[in-house]
Amino acid sequence: MPSDNILVLGATGATGLAFLHEVLGAESGPRLTLLVRNKGKLPEDLLQRDPSRVRVVEGGLANENKLDEAMEGVTAVVSFLGAYMSLYYLITRSTPTPIADSFHLIKKVMRKHGVKRLLALSTPAHALPGEVYTWTQYITTQILPPAIVPQGSAEMTAIAEVCADPEFDYTIFRVPHLNTGSADSKVYAGRYGADFKGTQELSRASLARWVWREIEQNTWIKDQPALGNY
């Protein structure tokens, strides 16, 4: 809605940029506040689509003053922050979680400004209690990620655990492999199991559209759906 002001974290990443393209491509979309470490990574043509709807704050996640500035007037926070593959962590098997750790400060600033709505990206490596898997789902979501990307798997699981805070109206969207497919691809949201219709592929553009609709419709409040194109 035009009255909304969405704080976007991870706006310079591929999925964050897909979200900006989706939202700014609509004439009556919400306002966006972008907290970025380097404004120069944002495409200028994208920022100029509707300058009245975009506010950029340069700063890191550990900078409370910048977080405080960015949170002013915000109605929802959406995070596309995620871990990257690292040969170092693969070899050392170490699993630091700096992004997840930063959410403690983010939530503190949200409380200060009375912001309740929080949407955060995670992956199926974060399993829910009682969730049932087919063998294929179990291997691709629970076995391979911690074996191949131990730090990334730990980071994404920790993000979900920190953000699934009952004090907030959270939605943790757990995504599989992301690709460059169409925004028109159908997205299935639900729990893993034999009835899960989604594949282990999801286009960033369709994810961006799904997140925006979720902000508008609030279908998955205090829930953690797994997503997939189908």
TrEMBL record:
Span of domain NAD(P)-binding: 10-216
Database matches in InterPro entries: NAD(P)-bd_dom (IPR016040), NAD(P)-bd_dom_sf (IPR036291), Polyketide_Oxido-like (IPR051606)
Residue ranges of the TM segments: none
Endpoints of the signal sequence: none
GO molecular function: biliverdin reductase [NAD(P)H] activity; riboflavin reductase (NADPH) activity
Lineage: superkingdom: Eukaryota
Cited PANTHER family: FLAVIN REDUCTASE (NADPH) (PTHR43355:SF2)
Family the UniProt entry places it in: Belongs to the avfA family.
The protein's name in its UniProt record: NAD(P)-binding domain-containing protein
Protein's organism: Kwoniella newhampshirensis
